[in-house]
UniProtKB/TrEMBL annotation:
Native organism: Paenactinomyces guangxiensis
Keyword Transferase applies: yes
EC number: 2.5.1.7
Active-site residue list: 116
Residues where UDP-N-acetyl-alpha-D-glucosamine binds: 92, 121-125, 304, 326
Broadest EC class assigned to this enzyme: transferase
Name of the protein in its database record: UDP-N-acetylglucosamine 1-carboxyvinyltransferase
GO cellular component: cytoplasm
């Protein structure tokens, strides 16, 4: 089984360039199918989820060409057919094909989406939105069939703040007749990024980045060129890793504003954070104050950095609490961190993390993407060697992880 082998105890030093945002890319790749001419997406991250999505588009008949971090997607040869491949079940963001293909053909038959196993991940708010736009939904044997003889704009209130539902409804609404209003919409930077792409394609969208988004449907969308925003979760992971190893790292090609909640928590612990226009310099320390983390929709602390942050908290001088308000059972990393010596107790949706615990190397497994990131950070902190399996999860979301870390003077290799 493929594994990452990490010999810890080296402070990270140097600079790291952050790739394009996974969660923008995974919405934009399908979004290009809404157009009637080719689109070019720049700053596409070289990660497994993107490769998978490109394969799904190939299977549908689109022509996708890739040159470095740029992909061109020509949707014109795409055929109307059910999307039932295994790939759909392995990719959370395959749910975006619902909104896109519904917008394009007013009908879609699709397998249920996969992605990280974080406990229950319902898509009832996506469905509620499609239904409000006039869609009939039938679910049987793990397959969803959505049919809308006509998509009609509507007022939709989301019961939970959902990134996926907000974006998916924007896709269908961009092609509906009349005006749609999404209330209690997600405000994540990736939602704004996708709205910007759709606007460049000819859609009429106002309010992205606030909790009320207004979409005026249009008859046709055309191809465009768009540069994806930097991945704030990848950036946050390197910030945490720098702090955890008492390192000094310049995180480049980022939007510091997107990381305010992470910078604030690191500062509260005693990490030095210096923000520039497009970079953040992180300087670790040998003494950290314990802090409490509560994950919330943006601009709150992101759930996707909760697991990596937990590894750092094992170094704090006291006990910290980590509460995940988005995914109540996102604690698959805890049993593995315990193998490395961590003392963490999970009570409901809260992990109680004991500090001042030196971690040691062990054989551990990444059960999901960010659990993998948390184990990599723990391994960088540990004195001796750690073997991490489950690299397929880590590769879903981190471009060239071992190369980037090796450039920061980490001792890491893939076997
Ligand atoms: C591909 C992608 O962009 N993934 C991100 C996206 O996932 P995803 O879009 O799946 O996450 P959501 O924002 O939809 O989920 C937020 C919360 O709402 C709940 N919910 C969501 C939809 C729904 O119909 N019903 C419902 O109850 C979820 O179970 C969760 O508790 O946002 C999450 C929250 O920031 C991130 O962790 C993921 O990295
Ligand atoms: C949960 C995540 O991804 P996905 O929604 O694609 O499973 C993540 O990026 O941490």
């Amino acid at each position: 089984m493929e594994k990452l082998v990490i010999k810890g105890g080296h402070p990270l030093h140097g600079s790291v360039k952050i790739s394009g945002a996974k969660n923008s890319a995974l919405a934009m790749i399908p979004a290009t199918l809404l157009a009637d001419s080719p689109s070019v997406l720049e700053n596409i991250p070289d990660i497994r989820d993107v490769a998978f999505y490109i394969e799904v588009l190939h299977d549908l008949g689109a022509v996708v060409t890739r040159t470095g971090a740029e992909i061109t997607i020509d949707p014109s040869p795409i055929r109307h057919q059910p999307v039932l491949s295994q790939k759909v079940n392995q990719l959370r963001a395959s749910y975006y094909l619902m909104g896109v293909l519904l917008g394009k053909w007013k009908e879609v038959t699709i397998g249920t989406p996969g992605g990280c196993n974080l406990g229950l991940r319902p898509i009832d708010q996506h469905i509620k939105g499609f239904q409000a736009l006039g869609t009939k939904v039938v679910q049987e044997d793990g397959v969803l069939r959505l049919i809308a003889p006509k998509l009609q704009g509507a007022r939709i209130y989301l019961d939970v703040v959902s990134v996926g539902a907000t974006i998916n409804i924007m896709f269908a609404a961009a092609c509906a007749d009349g005006k749609t209003v999404i209330e209690n919409a997600a405000k994540e930077p990736e939602v704004i990024d996708v709205a910007t792409l759709l606007s460049s394609m000819g859609a009429v969208i106002k309010g992205a980045g606030t909790d009320i988004i207004r979409i005026q449907g249009v008859k046709r969308l055309h191809g465009c060129r768009h540069t994806i925003i930097p991945d704030r979760i990848e950036a946050g992971t390197y910030m945490i890793a720098a702090a955890a190893t008492e390192g000094e790292v310049l995180i480049e090609q980022i939007i510091p504003k997107h990381l305010e909640s992470v910078s604030a928590k690191l500062r509260e612990m005693g990490v030095q954070i210096q923000e520039e226009e497009e970079s953040i310099f992180v300087k670790g320390s040998s003494r950290y104050t314990p802090v409490d983390i509560k994950t919330l929709p943006y601009p709150g602390f992101p759930t996707d950095l909760q697991q990596p942050f937990t590894s750092l908290l094992t170094r704090a001088h006291g006990t910290s609490l980590v509460t995940d308000n988005i995914y109540s059972s996102r604690f698959e990393h805890v049993s593995q961190l315990e193998k490395m010596g961590a003392k963490i107790k999970v009570e409901g949706r809260t992990a109680i993390v004991e500090g001042m615990i030196p971690l040691h190397g062990a054989r551990v497994h990444a059960f999901d993407l960010r659990a993998g990131a948390s184990l990599v950070i723990a391994a960088l902190m540990a004195e001796d060697v750690t073997w991490i399996t489950g690299t397929n999860h880590i590769d879903r979301g981190y471009e060239q992880l071992e190369q980037k870390l090796a450039r920061l003077k980490a001792e890491i290799r893939r076997e």
